[in-house]
Amino acid sequence: MASTPRAQARTGAESVRRAIEGGRTDWWSVTFQGFLVLLLLLTLGVLAWLLTVVFVNGVPVLAERGFDFLTSPLASRAEAAGVGQAIVGSLYLMFFVVILSFPLGIGAAVYLEEYAHDSWSTRLINTGVRNLAGVPSIVYGLLGLAIFVVALADFTGGRSLTSGGLTMAILVLPIVIITSAEALRAVPEAIREAAFGVGATRWEVVRSHVLPYAAPGIFTGTILSMARAFGETAPLILVGAVIGGFNVEYDSVVGTLQGRYTALPTVVYDWARKPASFGPNVYAAIVVLIVVLLLVNALAIYLRNRFEQRW
Amino acid sequence: MAVRTRVNAPAEGKRDDRGGPTIRVMATNTLDESEQIAPAAMDQPGDLDFAEDEVVFDLQSLSCFYGSFRAVREISLRVPRNKITALIGPSGCGKSTLLRSFNRMNDLIDSAHIEGSILYHGVDLYADGVDAVEVRRRIGMVFQKPNPFPKSIYDNVAFGPRVAGYKGKMEELVERSLKRAAIWDEVKDKLKEPGTALSGGQQQRLCIARAIAVEPDVILMDEPCSALDPIATLKIEELMRELKENFTIVIVTHNMQQAARASDYTAFLTMGEDRAGYLVEMAPTQKLFTSPENRLTEDYITGRFG
């Protein structure tokens, strides 16, 4: 008699064991997971293929010519042509982006996030900025052509470095505003309230708290927008980045700013249309471009991880 | 639903409106009823008989709006000096909104505005020419969630005095403020460490230290213990009792026991049909919790709604 409950318990445990040790395979999960892995491999595969082709063809040129390739000017002979002017031109363009669109963009973001009242005009501006960030870069090229190259030719020198730099600065401005605004928005309202609560003015709140805490995010976003400008080709072709070749006349500041220039992606575009002897050069220039972009992105990631503020 | 109908019932209405005898359950029997203050000045809710110079805040038919939505409806009450005044009431009844109108913190919300007036030592806080920054320097605030700056403990406390242009010795002021907030012993060896590395209860005391470092007149506390464990909560309440020697404290709390334990006066707010909070009753805390005038108050403190 006494064993009856225990026997029941044992059969109970038995049935539980049988139920949970069923061992059925969920074929839908397996299939779906396999499908996802396939998609991932496909994507990575294309990328890996691309990089392999570029590096296999480009690295020999770099290995053979080394520093010479990085410093030589454009030339009509493939063996003599280098990306020296292109690197200098791209760095100049970055310089324009940094000194123009960073202060303007960050300033605009601070105004929109911290000062502007929530009104229909503010919302209109916000929507406008978002849409501007999605405008194709060739449109900015046309804008640059109309304004900087033609209308302001006396000041910029026409199809000059200044025109290219200003166009690039305008191109990334909306991106800088959006990423900076997002970084500012990520600072919790509680921090602003805490600072206001001890009698800080809006300026003190922004200067001592909001901006410092948002800085890592702002820097990350702006550096990435710089990388974007570094890789742009289309607008530069419209506003006069030189293809073919030119003599450097960087004799004065004004001469440089109003002078001719070129940029790395433009050179890649140009060489790609040239005779087959330029083939290896194209790959080598792409390698240089990719390495620079990777370095810039790595810097952005490093800064983000180093200074990121967790709330 | 029952809450709604009772909220709209006249204050002195019959208590058997639900068709049966109502059992009265008192929240606490430990309070000495002989200490009750005679309800002489209780004809209007909140109109307690304070001497003029004892009154820090005098709210005159104050309504708070967010856009067209009225969050707080026509509240008149007085807050006495060097006392702890608790604002209690169900969620969404506008307690925090009311509290944040005391130091013009709601100015930071674009759609927020008020009607009526808040006199602070006789001065209308919302009059033209009143500087909200100066108001907040005098009327400090401690928030629901501890919100130390992600800076060092020292800088957390020193920020307020710095922007106020404090000329004295900052180290001494920081130490004094941390001592008054009863956290000095725990942080004196790590003033350079970030305030965010402290525990929740310590963070909240750091925020109190930050608030008192600018020598305010009033400290507003918006559910300061709601994110804390019971031990940290008791520490803060103990601290409040010490601080009221020098400061006037207004505290919003969800926790009725906390109001009963820690405050001198309690104002009970609830929500009307239009979702606007209004003042039901304000009284000395012991009186409000032992013999409330209003049936809504009684229902709330006995746990029948809210």
What does this protein look like?
The complex is a heterodimer of chains A (311) and B (306). By secondary structure, chain A is an all-alpha fold. Chain A has a domain at 87-277 and 289-307: Orthogonal Bundle (MetI-like fold), CATH 1.10.3720. Chain A is 77% helix and 0% strand. In chain A, helix 6 crosses helix 8. The model of chain A has no long low-confidence stretch (mean pLDDT 86). By secondary structure, chain B is an alpha/beta fold. Chain B has a single domain (41-301), classed as P-loop containing nucleotide triphosphate hydrolases (Rossmann fold, 3-Layer(aba) Sandwich), CATH 3.40.50. In chain B, a hairpin with a 5-residue loop joins strand 9 (265-271) and strand 10. The relative contact order of chain B is 0.20. The A-B interface holds A 117-119, 188, 190-201, 204, 208-209, 213, 309 and B 103, 105, 108, 110-111, 133-134, 136-138, 140-141, 143, 145, 147-150, 159-160, 163-164, 207, 210-211, 213-214.
Keywords:
heterodimer, A: 311 residues, mainly alpha, MetI-like fold, 14 helices, 77% helix, 0% strand, flat, B: 306 residues, alpha/beta, Rossmann fold, six-stranded mixed sheet, four-stranded antiparallel sheet, 11 helices, 10 strands, globular, disordered N terminus
Find the CATH superfamily of the domain at 87-277 and 289-307 in chain A. Answer: MetI-like
The total count of helices of chain A amounts to 14
How would you sum up the major sheet of chain B?
A: 6 strands, mixed
Broad CATH class of chain B: Alpha Beta
The CATH superfamily of chain B bears the name: P-loop containing nucleotide triphosphate hydrolases
Q: What's the helical proportion of residues of chain A?
A: over 70%
Strand content of the residues of chain A, in percent? Answer: under 5%
Shape by Cα distribution of chain A: flat
Mean pLDDT of chain B: 84
Shape of chain B: globular
Count the beta strands of chain B. Answer: 10
H/E series of chain A, N to C? Answer: HHHHHHHHHHHHHH
Largest sheet of chain A: none
User: Which blocks of ≥5 consecutive residues of chain B have pLDDT under 50?
Assistant: 1-46
Strand content of chain B: 15-25%
Which structural class do the helices and strands of chain B define? alpha/beta
